[in-house]
Amino acid sequence: MPIFVENRELVTPGTLLAKGDYKAGEHAYKRGDCIYSTHTGLVERSDNVIGVIALVGCYVPKVGDLVIGKVVDSHFTYWEIDINSPYIAKLKVGDVRRGPGPARSAPSKFLPTGTLVAGKIVEFDRTKDPVVTIRGRGLGRIQDGHLVKINPAKVPRLIGRGGSMIKMLVEKTGCEIKVGQNGLIVVKGKSPREERVAISAIRRIETEAHTSGLTDRISAMIDRELQNES
Fold first, then answer.
1. Phi, psi of 78, rounded to the nearest 5 degrees
2. What is the pLDDT of residues 146-177, one digit of tens each?
3. What are phi and psi for residue 37, nearest 5 degrees?
4. Which domains are assigned to the chain?
5. Residue 81 near residue 89, CB atoms below 8 Å
6. Label partner for 200 (CA 20 to 30 A): which of 106, 117, 188, 206?
């Protein structure tokens, strides 16, 4: 089961990464028994999973993705949602409310332009715009918090393996952090101080996503900044 690249090696789209009984990780795909890179980035290997930490990239929707979006227009049967992608998503009026009510009679008043929502991609096949739902736990209108935008390719690093990085951020800062796979993040803290520290940490993770030992450095940075601001 040969691997043709070194860990942290810079690769380009289409690079053959490995062959054999391996699983394709982020920004990689498997064809037959060969795994190829889909992005320019650094190889990341973990056990039998091989993928790429993308250095650049835009968000391409996938069914099941959690996204943060902004209402940019409304129509009689749906809203248009900017999801930080080349594609504009649709949120159907029937998804928000069944039967008569303000959502159906006046969509622009129920979810005005500029409203932030947390949604999930439920339909997308590249031949038509994606469809999102805001039905489900943790989904719906976002009332408050700070919106942070990062490169969508860096979202897996922000979340961390098994959610380790984002869990550490939440525990240390005390903030609620909702991460969209599209690179939009909402941070809500108990105080402006905690929010500033959390946002600073997110920015540093984005900048240093390609480096090793990042979790420990971010943890130390948060401790230091919280102490300095106390």
1. -160, 160
2. 999 999 989 999 999 889 999 999 999 999 99
3. -80, 145
4. 10-54 (2.40.50.100), 66-142 (2.40.50.140), 146-229 (3.30.1370.10)
5. yes
6. 117
